[in-house]
Write a structure and sequence with these properties.
The chain has six helices and 27 strands. By secondary structure, it is α+β, with helices and mostly antiparallel strands. The protein folds into three domains: 112 residues, Roll (DNA Polymerase III, Chain A, domain 2); 120 residues, DNA Polymerase III, subunit A, domain 2 (DNA Polymerase III, Chain A, domain 2, Roll), CATH 3.10.150.10; 116 residues, DNA Polymerase III, Chain A, domain 2 (Roll), CATH 3.10.150. The strands form four sheets. The protein has a nine-stranded antiparallel beta sheet. A nine-stranded antiparallel beta sheet has the order 15-11-12-13-27-26-25-19-23.
Length: 367
């Protein structure tokens, strides 16, 4: 095997397939990168038994061949090479890498032991605009659960039907939902799928992302295909909770507030709360103001008043300030946000309407 490729193209390719490498496996192949050179194309593959990624780039291939090398080591080498042509030669037991005056000789693994990239046949699929989907994923994926005991809640529910794209995520303490009206080319009247939050985010932030992304499912896999990249992940089994029953149909108090002003006040008040996640909110309908305050036994207390537009009754409640800050930071409309409250013991709903409709529900906290 012998080929040459630019350092930038090679580094980009390795960053894409790097998501599929195992970081702490005792099986060397799972930490490796499979490279196949043929017909002016380099094909890179990684596989950690949960994720499989394949990416192709153009290269000057003089002799076809294949090799498996340590992915982490190869990334480290290429990252520090100058922006010039990188030449690979060898492959059966060792591979030589040269770039200008730099030379490396790496041991390789037997490419015959590499598992073939999965051949998939979709049971359903949907093609979606990447830019809109990426924006929506960024607003909800952090809300997924971090607990491995509840894999369903580690996922984002994607639904595409009637030209409406909806993403929902919850960790049972809060819920985030995004909706956008967009054309979706689906193989079924309604395309619905639970996608692991970290996987969804990783895919939508890849540098090889194209204008549209095809998402398909098999019996036990999720497949993302765009341009010269294919990303395959395990399917999350189970039924997503009925989030609709959590969404209040009425409210007693509605508060409209400047998003940036609210977020700034919250961050200032929270500086005193290194260990206290709970913030008290007092809404005064007569004064048209909202007081944010935190009282800690060790550090002291803080408070700030924010002007608001209140419709309905005055109300006091307590919320996790980390959750509220994340909500405000993700709101599509950074000018105003609407807060709907039922009572201090029921969920609080934040709403922002723009090209993407955004809803964020937070369960009450106890001081």
């Amino acid at each position: 095997m012998k080929f040459s490729v630019s350092q930038k193209s090679l580094l980009s390719a390795l960053s894409i397939v790097g998501k599929g490498m195992s970081g702490n496996s005792t099986i060397p192949l799972l930490s490796g990168v499979y490279i196949k050179a043929a017909n002016g194309t380099l094909e890179f593959q990684t596989n950690n038994l949960t994720i499989s990624i394949r990416h192709k780039i153009a290269a000057n291939v003089e002799e076809p061949g294949e090799a498996v090398v340590s992915g982490k080591l190869l990334q480290s080498i290429v990252k520090n090479l100058p922006d010039a042509a990188v030449v690979f030669e060898g492959g059966e037991r060792t591979i030589t890498i040269t770039c200008l005056s730099s030379l490396f000789r790496l041991n390789t693994l037997d490419a015959k032991d590499w598992s073939e990239f999965p051949e998939v046949e979709f049971s359903s699929s949907c093609e979606l605009p990447s830019e809109v989907l990426s924006t929506m994923v960024d607003k909800v994926y952090r809300v997924t659960s971090k607990e491995n005991s509840r894999p369903i809640l580690q996922g984002v529910l994607l639904t595409a039907a009637d030209n409406t794209l909806r993403l929902v995520a919850t960790d049972s303490y809060r819920l985030a939902m995004c909706e956008a009206y967009t054309a979706a080319e689906s193989s079924t009247p309604e395309f619905s799928l639970i996608i692991p939050g970290t996987v969804f985010h990783d895919v939508l932030t890849m540098p090889s992302l194209t204008e549209k992304i095809l998402i398909g499912t098999t019996a036990n896999q999720i497949v993302f295909s765009f341009g010269d990249t294919t990303y395959i992940s395990r399917k999350t089994e189970g039924t997503y909770p009925d989030y609709r029953q959590l969404l209040p149909k009425t409210y007693a108090t509605a508060v409209t507030v400047d998003t940036e002003q609210f977020l700034g006040a919250l961050r200032r008040v929270a500086t005193i709360a290194s260990t206290m996640p709970i913030m008290r909110i007092d809404i005064d309908a007569d004064a048209q103001s909202m007081k944010l305050s935190i009282n800690t036994r060790d550090q002291g207390e803080s408070a700030e008043y924010v002007p608001v537009n209140v419709e309905g009754d005055s109300m006091s409640l307590s919320l996790n300030h980390h959750y509220v800050a994340e909500c405000l930071s993700s709101a599509p409309d950074r000018e105003k946000i609407l807060i709907e409250l039922q009572s201090p013991t029921l969920p609080t709903v934040f709403k922002s309407t723009d090209k993407i409709n955004y809803l964020y529900l937070v369960m009450p906290s106890l001081l």
